Amino acid sequence: MRLDHVSYACEPDGLAATAERISTTLGIEPVKGGVHPRFGTRNMIFPLVNGQYLEVVEVLSHPASDKAPFGQAVRARSEAGGGWMGWCVAVDNLEPFEGRLGRSAVPGNRKFPDGQELSWQQIGIKGLIADPQVPYLLRWDDGLEALHPSQARPATVKLDCLTIAGSSERVTEWLGTQVEETLDGVDVRWVAPNGTPGIMSVTFETANGTVEI
What we know:
The protein has 213 residues and is an alpha+beta fold.
């Protein structure tokens, strides 16, 4: 179980403009991710060191986005002005979480511009919608390590710290294990919620120093 990526819902001017602002801030170029046909969304990716990445995601005008919780979550965050939507933990086995949450994981997939397809199973988006401090979880399908988004381009930027409005006790309860064990060296600053809980900011180590988004 490890921190896999952080998700940023695009701002009102769309995916390209939002990704361009983040690109300027981090000093690295994004990679076109592609469309998630089951969720009615698409993304752009910033590969990070330590096998992690940042995705900027946009909801599409597509029936899938109305039905899929992930599409609903992206739409809601973007309609609220955009910003950090959530964080995701990768696991080797989703069955314990299916048992605890009382529902099955759902498949996800997208194609890279070169036609290669990345696929996975995920669960926990409904939990994130209800309580945005908790991560959602995924399991990458077997044999796809070389296609992991962090491998799309050599990475130079490190995810250093999450600032989350919420509590480590709540997230530990959700995960069923100590939250610190999932973070793979990433720090977390917990702050008391002043409104909706969730990610307040993310700090990165870049070639130009520390930056916070």
